Structure formats: structure tokens, C-alpha cells
Amino acid sequence: MQKKMGEAVARVARRVNDTVENQGDSLDLAECKLMTFPVGIYKAMRSVAGGIHRITLANNELKALAGRFVTTFSQLRELNLEGNYLHRLPEEVRSLLHLRAINLSRNRFRHFPEPLAAVGTLETVELEENEIADVPLELLAAMRSLRRLNLRANPLRAELRALARPLVPFELLVSPEGPQPAP
Description:
Blueprint: H1 2-21, E1 26-28, H2 39-44, E2 54-56, H3 67-72, E3 78-80, E4 101-103, E5 124-126, H4 137-141, E6 148-150, H5 158-167, E7 171-173
């Protein structure tokens, strides 16, 4: 077990160093067994954080995202948090003025993450395979840039399915009605 943890730490360090040394615009920490975003990364990436436009933290074990993450990487355009244990987003997400796409599929959201409604540049929201039964249609309808919302494999209320399509001016993806197969 310690060997695997050591390998995961080394993988994170390598990827962060590659991004810093190459002045990259993306950071890929997918499948690194992260339970939290390592505090040391903020300091290590201080010189390039403003130039990071894409971060992937997919398939880790994150239970929360700190406000500091959002304020540090304020220029994000794409954020992939698929396959974690998240159930909410920090309010600071509202300050991501350039965010165009966020993937929150396969997490633990029970409600649409309302801070996303304040992100005026957001075009794509992936929320497939969460536990969402209801979404605030009035907030969604006000999201001017939104082009696609994926809510497949969520236990959405039947009334919501019927009401949503005519009310929202974007592509709304939902699963067919009826029982869904267990994953």
C-alpha cells in the first residue's frame, strides 16, 4: 500500500513539475488517488497559475474542492472533476469568469450546483450519473451561454422532464424514463 501511495505522490510531483517547467496551460492530475488537492501545489505553481486554462482531476477520491483552488486557478476555461465524491462546489466558482466547460459526472451531487448559474461564460455542464432529482429551471433558463447540460442517469422527476425541454434554450440530455440499469 505504501508503495502505491509513493507512486501516486511521485506521479503528482512529476505532472506538476512538467507543467511548471514547460509553462504549460494545463494540469492533468487524473487518477492520482487524491483525497484533497495538495496544498503544496499552490506554492509550486505560483508562477504559472494564472496561465492554467485546463485542469483535470478526474477519477480521484476528492470529497470537496476548496475555495482557494478556484481563486488560485482563476483563468480556468475547462475543469474536469469527473469520477470523484463531490456533492457541492465552493461559492468561489462564481468568480471563474472564463470557465466554458465543467465535467462533474459520476460524483455525489443531489442538487444542481447553483454557483454554476452565475458563471456567464459556461457553455457545457456534464452532470451525468449523479443523484440529482430536481434542477432550478429558472436559473438554467437564465444561463445565457449554456449550450449543453447533460443530466443522463440521474433520478430526475418525471414532471421536470416534461417541463424542461420547452423552457430551456440549450441541449438538455436526460435518460429515458423508467428504471435505470444499475452501474
